[in-house]
Structures are given as C-alpha cells and as structure tokens.
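Fill-in record for HAD-like protein.
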Amino acid sequence: MIDESKLIVPDPNNVRIIISDCDGTLLNSKHELSERTNKAINYALANYDVNFIIATGKTRYSVTHIRKQLNIDKRKNCLAVHSNGCIIYDDKDEVIKEYFVNKEIVLKNIELYKKHLAGKDYSYVLYVRDTLYLPERGRWSEFLEEYGERVAIYDEPELIRMIKNDELAINKICVLTTPEIFYDGFNEILQKFIDSYEEISFITGNIYCYETQPKEISKGASLKYIMDTLNVKPDQVMAFGDSFNDISMFEVAGYKYAMGNSEKAVMDVATNVTESNDEDGIAVVLEKTFMKDNKN
C-alpha cells in the first residue's frame, strides 16, 4: 500500500486533461475496467471541466467497449490517441492526424524479420487504422485478439502484393516474439536497421511487441498536439502510465503517475507512484484529487 498522504495532486479546478494508457494502467490484468476506476473518472467528468483521453499502442477498435463504459464515446473534447500516436481521433470519431511508414521500409523490415528470425517463434503485424494484418493464424494472432484487436489473416505473398500496390496504408509495423528471442542479438540488428533511416524510430510498450513507427511520433507528441489544440498548459494535465511508451507523455504532462506495476524507468520520471492496475491505482489518485470526502 502506498502512503496516500504523500501523493502530490493538482488543484481539481485547474485540471483540463486526464490522459491514460490502457493495458497495465486503466485496465487491470484481466483487461477489465474496474467499477472503482470507472466511478472516479466519471465523477471527475461530471463535476469538473475536464476531458478524459485514452492513449494506447492499440487500435481504437480494441477499446470501443471501454469508451462506452466510461461514457466518453463522442463526448466533447474527449479525443483519443492510438497506435502509439500514429493516429489521433477527435470527439466525433474522425481522424484528425495520421502518420504512416513508407512501404519500402515496411517491406525491408519484413525481410529483416525473415532473415534473422527464421525458424523462431515470431510474427510480424501491420497496423492499418483499426485492423491488424498478419501472415498466419496462431499464437500471436490469438495474443492480439485477447487484447481486443481485430485481426485479418492473409498469406504472406498476398500481404506483400497489397503493400506494393498501396492497398494498405501502414501506420506502424510490429514484430511479436518473446524477450528471450528478441534480446538474443536481434534487438541490435533491428536498432541498426532503424538507425539507418531518418524517418523511423523504435518503441516498445509490451514485452512481446517491438515496433517500428514514424520518427518523432509518440503518445507525448500527440498529447502536445491536443494540448495546443485545446489551449491547455502542462500543469493542467494528469497522465497515467506503466510502460516505456508512456514516458513521452510524462515529458509533456505537469502531473504524471506511474502505476505500481510500472517499469522502473517510468517510475523514475513520475510525480508519484500509485497503486498497481490491479489495485485501482488511477482511482486512488483521482479520488484524492477530485472526490476528497465524496468517495461513497
């Protein structure tokens, strides 16, 4: 248990944006939104001039049910950041910003995987708006479906044809594998490949997912864009996260809270460390900020 008296929280009347990662943060380890967290978020939305934003490496499709549970689906100024910042949606479900990886880089990325991971347990994934494209069904397609993603399976020759013919506008490409396989030298090979291009960068938000995406694009960059759009200052933003891809948000937000289950690097740059995602860490902070004596 954390010492809640040591939590540093903002003046609730000054907060304009609450932004949160999804898995490992907003949702518990069963990928569920707890009643307590839902109640705390909705209390803030109902009683203060604040907007709630989900920022995730996943697609919008995968969190549609969560948005409905939170009553933020098409709610004014409750924008959304998906695919690690590659896509920003407005409050009417329309795309207002979108970024892509050049198809030639995607094709070379796939060749890199095939050359160095042949015979190993892996799959690559092409993120195209709300659909993830994979070359075969198996462990990794099931893994993505457990996270609520919509998966489309095409034979690799057909996928390659679609990429070459510009039938797929790819936001990012991800290799799914185990840490043991990835860090057995392939991490260095992939980083060298990425470093050879000015327009791409590496990010990971999950121990099984290693991504190549447009450079300068991140959750933090998207948060900054939203802040500028809504004329919001850093000290008016509360951010919650648990993984490496959340650090960029913490660099922008004035108040940043790492979950108790966070990577150490995330905790190191946080205002405070709250309880874990299985112990309603977000609710703990929001209750102290917005509810005070109104927890019942």
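KEY FINDING: The mean pLDDT is 95.
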